[in-house]
Structure formats: C-alpha cells, structure tokens
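From the thread on structure requests for the teaching lab: each student submitted one protein with a one-line request. Submission from student K.M.:

"Model Serine acetyltransferase from Curtobacterium luteum, tokens only."
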Amino acid sequence: MSPAPRRGVLRTVREDLAAARRGDPAARGDLENAIVYSGLHAIWTYRLTHRLWLARGLPGARFAARVIGQVARSVTGIEIHPGARIGRRFFIDHGMGVVIGETAVVGDDVVVFHGVTLGGRGGEHGPGARRHPRVGDRVVLGAGSSLIGAITIGADSVVGANTVVTKDVPPRSVVTGVAGTARPRSGHEGVPPL
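Reply posted by the TA:
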C-alpha cells in the first residue's frame, strides 16, 4: 500500500460514512451513523493521531498522539496505534475489542468486525522493523479473528470468525480455523461485495 495522497477532511468523512452504509445493512443514515458508530469515531480519531504521529519537528506530537489514542480507546473500546497505516473507506462494525498494532498496514475498503487483533510477534525494534500484519484491499476480517506477526493477507480475502492466522494468505482466499487454513474463495461466502 503506497502512502495515500492528502484528501480533504470532508471528502474523507463522506467516504467513511459511505463505507459504513455499504458495510452494515442496519445503517440507517449518515447523521445517526456519525453520532452512534464507535467504529467511525475510532477511525476518525486514528486519522488525527496518525497525522500527529507523522508530524516531524513538532515537539511532543507522538506523545500527544498516544494520549489521544488511549482516550479514544477508553470511549470506543477500539485501540488503533497512531503508527499503523490504514487505507481509505475502512469500516469497523461492532468494534469493541479491536486492536491494531503499530506496524500494521491495512488496505482500502477493508471491513473489520468486533474482537479482531492485528498483533505483533517477536521483539524486532527500530526503524523499518515489521511486527504486525499487512492486510490487502477489500479484505473482510471476521469477529474475533487474530492475525499475528509480519504476515500478509492477500487482497479480496475473507478471514473467518475466531480464526488465528500466523502465515501469509494468498489473494482471493478464505481462511478458517485455529492455525488458519486458506482455500480459494468461491464467491459464495455470504460476505457482501465491497
């Protein structure tokens, strides 16, 4: 995933609201969604904290980003490290318990359900160290799934509920089970098209 070009705040908010409508059949309207969807609150806070995290030469910016992120976690139940890289139209449905680690990279049009972890493995430190998953575009991460380590989930894949993934997943796959097993997607997995 390449760095996203800067977009206007209003355009980003509209895209996020559209992603909520597309990702949740129970979504009633933009105003209600903007007020009550904790996933939207979490991603909007993340977008602010990520800018602070990247602000070079602004003393205390990273500390402020972490503090704001922790306040958002207390309110939403969703923890997104400000160093993570998250693409456009990202939607978290019923987000309680979602954790996204510092070096995670998430593509565009990804849908995440509650209890998902994009966690690290090992103690690699320093610039360029990758400890967390990379998630391709148009991926759906089922409730309670755990993606652990510097793995890659290929585009257009579905990770089933409560699946534990510790190895790379090819594009257009479905992964299920503990010590997740991948198979090609048939297109009939009951997941709405993104």
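TA comment: Helices lie at 9-23, 30-36, 38-54, 61-76. The chain has one domain: 9-184.
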